[in-house]
Every structure is written in structure tokens, then in C-alpha cells.
Please model this.
Amino acid sequence: MKTRIINAPDMVKAMNRQKEETKFDVLRPLHFKELEPVIKNKHFFIKTYGCQANVRDEETMRGMLENIGCTSVNDPKDADIIIINTCAVRENAEDKVYGEIGNLKYLRKKNKNLILAICGCMVEEPEILNRVLDTYREVNLFFGTHEIPMLYDLLYEVITTKDRIVAIESKQGEVVEELPASRLNNYKAYVNIIYGCNKFCTYCIVPYTRGKERSRKFDEVLKECKQLVDAGYQEITLLGQNVNAYGKDLDEGKDFADLMEAVAKLGIPRLRFTTSHPWDFSSKMIDVIAKYPNIMKFIHLPVQSGNDEVLRKMGRRYNREQYLALVKEMREKIPGLSLSTDIIVGFPNETREEFEDTLSLVDIVKYEAAFTFIYSPRKGTPAAKMDDNVPYEEKSRRFQELVKHLEVHIEEHSKSMVGKVYDVLVDGESKNNKEMMSGYTEENKLVHFPSKSSLIGKIVKVRITESHTYSLIGELVDE
Ligand code: SAH
Ligand code: SF4
Ligand code: F3S
Model:
């Protein structure tokens, strides 16, 4: 099998942020007519890792495949096309993918016509791509985050030439509209508002894998949201690596606060957004969140570290004092606000004192939820070249210590909810107890309660009867 490289990733090109205007485009497959009869009635299986951006990409790929007569299957053994949609944010995300390819590659030995594809953020990294190309000869299609709109043409190439195709162009990226979507949930939806990232935090691979910050046009976002409202969706999450950078690259005179307000006015019962960077979170945004009851009083505000020197080395563009001032303004203006965060422990050369600043910040902010990570060096990023004198065991100890600090506040918040009644959007059976249903409160707390499956997708009132650190138990309240 010949390997044909249409485009290969390049970290220097991936860093390019020239002031070219974003290109707006619509889906333009070259070989749609020829592909349709070849691919009709085929079965596909997509496995997605990583963040909501990848989940939304899966929905686009599903939409494209279903539009051409393919059907999704739950077991990869039944599939003619397998797509592994990957994440490169930390090493453990990558390890899961290697395990998955290892599990699936034998299927190609059984079925020579199987298309085994890898896409997403991992293959955007040249060293990883080369490793997969060499190690897993069974994988016969590689495409990047920018190539999803070319999916039809890539499948056509693989099927007609039987070559192994690599199409991963490192570029700033465009905005492609009118892509189909087959959504994975029929009452909660993700809507992209801005792609890419220009922040280049020194530890992070995302700006290299996803291209430059480019906003979708205001009316395009509203059109998609309006369709979701009309279809009866209960919750919309506006998505971007940096939602509050929305609009800065357009000349529409609209910012994220304007967009949030316009979507809230469409009447969606629950409006969320993720992720917002503390650096460009404006007072205007806080005022809009406070004003509209259907904008959830939940903000994910990654801090990463509580120490100024570490924040500077991370390239985060804010200091501890500015972050705390932002939190103060949010807590004052938005009653009942729930705050969550991301924290990285063990950034290169982080001292004990610097780490303690993170602990003290956690004790001031008293987060209602948090995601914690041990720093994972990413090839090609500036932090990966920094000296690091902190042994892994020490990072691991700090990680445990941080989790304990966070849990004190999370537990306290959960306990304070007992006895009160909350609106819960019902998701489905609880993972560990089939007798119970589960769902999320407006402040994004997970609640389990005895109920019927007929309530899935509905917002119900639940009284909290018992609290655990990461979940709550409740009972339905008759209205
Ligand atoms: N755009 C989002 C974050 C996307 S990545 C934001 O800026 O908030 C999600 C989280 O992964 C980050 O907030 C960070 O805490 C963590 N992360 C990113 N790169 C990492 C690395 N190299 N090692 C450990 N954690 C990392
Ligand atoms: Fe990564 Fe920083 Fe961009 Fe978030 S803002 S995606 S952490 S570079
Ligand atoms: Fe992972 Fe790419 Fe998202 S690296 S976190 S899937 S943007």
C-alpha cells in the first residue's frame, strides 16, 4: 500500500498568525456524485476523545456520512469506516488513542476494504503523525482538524486508489458554513462560535492543532441557535477555546456579550458557554450573565496557577490580583454563581512556595468545581524546552494536596444545597444505579434521583436530600 502525502503538518506554519482576513466558505466536495453510489449503505463508527470541539466535529462528520447514505453502528466490528477522533492536550489523552488503535487494527487484517482513519488534534503534531504512520501500517487515512470539510473527497481517494492518504495542512484555517450535523443529543447542543486559539499559553498544543482564532458570523450563529430552539432543544452551549474573544476578528461591531444576549433572547431554556479566558472577560459580559435568567449562573474560568511568576511563564496574560478582582466582580454581580476552573500542577521548576500560592487562591475563590492536571510536556511548545527540577513524585504529591483543598470547598457547596429545590435537566439513567435518573442543576451539579425515563430531556424540580463530594442525591418535587 502506497502512502500518499497530500499535506503534512508543520509546527512553524501552525504558529502563523498573520493578519490575513479569514476566508468564509461553504461545503464544496469535488467528488460527491461519484462517491455517493460507492459509499451508500456503508456503516461507520466514530470514537471521539478530547474536548467539546471534538464532539462537535464528530457531529459534523456523522452528518456528512449520513447525508450520503451511511449509517452509524455501535460496534466497530460492524463498520466499513472507522474514524478515531483524537486529542493531544496531555500525554494520557494520547495513550488512550494508542490503546484504541491497537485494539482496532486487527479488523483491517480481516477486512482489506475497511477504512481505518485517524483525525483530530494528535495527527496535527508532526512527531506523533510519524510515529503512527510507522507503527500502525493498518491505518489508511489521516486527516487534520482543518480537513473535515474535505471528508467526502478523502474517502473517495482512499476507496478509488487504495492508497494510504495523509491530508493534514497546518494553516490558520477558514470558517466553513453549511456543513451538515447529526447531533448526538436531542435536547442539549453545542454551537461553535469561534474556532482556534491565539493565546499560545506556553504549555498548550491547542493553538498549533486548531489554527487561529476565527469567529463565525453573528447571523450564522443565531441561525443555528434559532433552529435548535425551534426543534425543542433545552440547552445550548456556545463553544470556543476562548469564547470571549468572539467577534474581535470580525468587523461586525459585535462582541461575546452581544452574542450571548441575542441567543438568550431566542428563548432557549438554558444557555451555557465554554471556555472563557480570564484575560478578556469584560464587565459587559458579567452584566449580561446577571441579567438573563436563562443564562446559567455557572462560569468555567481556568486559572492554571495562583502564582504570578508561574502565570507569567505560562503566558497567561493576567496576574493573581487581576484574576481575584474578576472573581470578586462576578460573585458580587451574579448571585448564586458557581465557578469552576482548570489548574495545572508541576509546571517546569514550580517551587513549593509557588504551589502554595495556588492552594491559597483556591481557598479564597472556593470553587464549586475544578479540573486538575499534572503538567504534561507537549513537543513543540515553549514550556517543553524549559528546565524542570521538580521530580514527578513531588508533582504527584502536590496534585493530591491540591485535590484535597478543592474538595473541602466543593463538599461545603454541595452540603449547602441539601434541603433546597433545584431545576434539573434530566439526562438519563444514572451510571451506577439503574433505578435512578441523573441530570445537572443550573450550576452544573450532578444530581441522582428516582424517576422515570419519560422525563429525559425535561427540566424538573428536585429537592436535594443528600450530598457527596461530586454528586448529590435528590427527590422529585410535585409541582
Ligand atoms: N481553551 C481552554 C483550555 C483548553 S485545554 C482554556 O484556555 O481555558 C483544557 C485544559 O487542559 C487547560 O485549561 C489546562 O488546564 C489543561 N492543559 C492544557 N495543556 C496542558 C499540558 N500541557 N499539561 C497539563 N494540562 C494541560
Ligand atoms: Fe491552550 Fe491557552 Fe489557548 Fe486555552 S487559551 S487553548 S490553554 S493556549
Ligand atoms: Fe484535545 Fe484538541 Fe480539544 S488537543 S482538548 S481535542 S482542541
